[in-house]
Amino acid sequence: MNDANHRLRLRAVRVGIDTRHEPVLFLRRDSEVARSEGFDAMSQVQVATDSRSIIATLMILETELLSEGQAGLSDAAWRRLRVEDGDTVILHHPPPVDSLADMRAKVYGAQLNAAQFNDVIRDIVAGRYMDVHLAAFVAACSGGRLSRQEIVHLTTAMVASGERLSWDVEPVMDKHSVGGLPGNRTTPIVVAIAVADGLTMPKTSSRAITSPAGTADTMETMTRVDLGLTEMRRVVEREGGCLAWGGAATLSPADDILIRVERALDLDSEGQLVASVLSKKVAAGSTRVVIDMPVGPTAKVRSLAAAERLSGYLGAVGDALGLALHIDVGDGSEPIGRGIGPALEARDVLAVLRGEKSAPPALRQRALQLAAGVLNLAGTTAPGEAMARATSILDSGRAWERFRRICEAQGGFREPPRATCHHELRAGCPGRVKTIDNRKAARLAKLAGAPADKAAGLDLAVRRGDTVARGDLLMTLHADSPGELEYALDYFRAHPDVITLAADS
After folding, report:
1. What are the φ and ψ backbone dihedral angles of 147, each rounded to 5 degrees?
2. Which of 173, 181, 199, 483 is most buried per CB count within 10 Å?
3. Which member of 119, 174, 197, 268 is catalytic?
């Protein structure tokens, strides 16, 4: 071993610092490696073992946290390198990331071809992009800056970035909502109905991006969702379907990286939405997909013109990737269920599946409509009979039984948790409920702690058109700490138009 290589070898130490997803390397200010290699704070450093390597951001320590000859690693870096305390790591300047030139070209408005998108996505998945590079790429692809052909290229590159499942049956069904509508937790109900009818539905879902809950967040309050590919296949082969988190299954892994950045930037652009949705469907082996597209003034899709444009993007990419799509445009003028937040939405799902009298009627009806769309698209139901068939499966208890079986196969079923703090918000005057603002209701639930606190959120007691008297309950806030409850209440005091009342004529 030559002296130069010897100087670059350090002993790995887990410093116990959570840097979320970004791998971080810590070196002492007097580190011989830092001086000899010219590493400065925030430099990108390649950290390697004999079998793995990552690109980490360097932080310089002014304290005695590390001893001479040690390299501190954040939790994210430690997980990716799969090292143990005392293992040797080698530090290098990282090789140039050529695809950053393509990223910069996109920032300046250039259209990228298939090879360029493949290069960018490959480097993103390999961990060669810093968060600042990821943010630039996400922003450059937002605001209508992707053409239809670019969305096809991006989707194809995202599929190619991970593993793909294939199934020995046809058709393989799927369903996805474009989002933006709080409490629209129809997916677990639709999957349970479809699978109970004998269809195959390997459903993978994302966690929340800009909402108080995603399907994966909601399902996680009732069962395990971090299934690997082998576990997913076992559950689907046993029960006909699954309800898993896509991020654990290495299906389109670039999607989860980009979603993390979109969440931080509070962006959810059309082009990336299409690529995100359809890349996961193709990677999961799905061949026919029902798309739920709620439309309303405070939903993600705000007008029928916007719905038509997004449907065009979805259709073009679906055709290019061999997916049969059915797009169901629905009412997005108000939340669908009563609960907004993972556990509260899970409670609504269970109420519908169990046939409880307290089940939100709008959630039940929307889930049945989408389930009927799945049965129609599968071609297993005579025209005009799909709604009656879906209703029969739900009302007979077959969907609930299959949902329980899927949960048991994924690791066991449990009841959703309940929050420790509650606050009722009541009407200050009589009137009729004129509007419920989807975005402000979602914001209120997030300030209460959702989705990080699974039991947090809000529980609506009214719907549009309801008549209320002074003092009637409008909603209940749920939080796991008094501080978060107060954050939410502060927001409501400043934005009482989460729910607006009109004089009842």
Report:
1. -75, 170
2. 181
3. 268
Please determine, for residue 193, whether its predicted confidence score (pLDDT) is greater than 70.
Answer: yes
For residue 32, what are its two tokens? 């011989």
Q: Average per-residue pLDDT in the chain?
A: 92
Q: Are strands 457-460 and 431-436 parallel, antiparallel or unpaired?
A: unpaired
List CB contacts of 105: < 8 A, sequence separation 6 or more.
112, 116
Read off the pLDDT of each residue in 373-377 and give the average, rounded to a whole number.
97
- Cα of first residue to Cα of last residue in the chain, in angstroms, is 88
One-letter amino acid of 422: H
Q: What is the DSSP string of 6-60?
A: HHTEEEEEE-----TTS-EEEEETT-HHHHHHT--TT-EEEEE-SS-EEEEEEEE
Strand, helix or coil at 202?
strand
Give the model's confidence band at 44: pLDDT under 50 very low, under 70 low, under 90 confident, else very high. Answer: confident
420-439 pLDDT per residue, tens: 999 999 999 999 999 999 99
Pairing of strands 24-28, 70-73: antiparallel
Which CA distances in Å does 261 have to 84, 209, 472, 490?
A: 29, 9, 41, 27
268 counts as catalytic? yes
3-state secondary structure of 381: coil
What are the DSSP calls for 383-442, one per residue? TT-HHHHHHHHHHTTHHHHHHHHHHHHHT---PPP--SEEEEEE-SS-EEEEEE-HHHHH
Strands (E), 240-323: 241-245, 288-295
H-run or E-run covering 483: helix 482-494
pTM: 0.86
Beta bridge partners of 71: 12
Cα separation values, 328 from 132, 268, 351, Å: 37, 20, 24
Residue 53's pLDDT band, with cuts at 50, 70 and 90, is confident
* Residue pLDDT, tens place only, 442-485: 999 999 999 999 999 999 999 999 999 999 999 999 999 999 99
Residue pLDDT, tens place only, 94-118: 889 999 999 999 999 999 999 999 9
Q: Give the pairing type, strands 24-28 and 53-61.
A: parallel
Residues β-bridged to residue 476: 424, 459
For the packed helices 114-125 and 148-160, what is the interaxial angle rounded to 10 degrees? 40
Query: Which of 156, 161, 159, 370 is CA-nearest to residue 285?
Result: 159
Give the CA radius of gyration of the chain: 25
Q: How far apart are CA 441 and CA 184, in angstroms?
A: 13
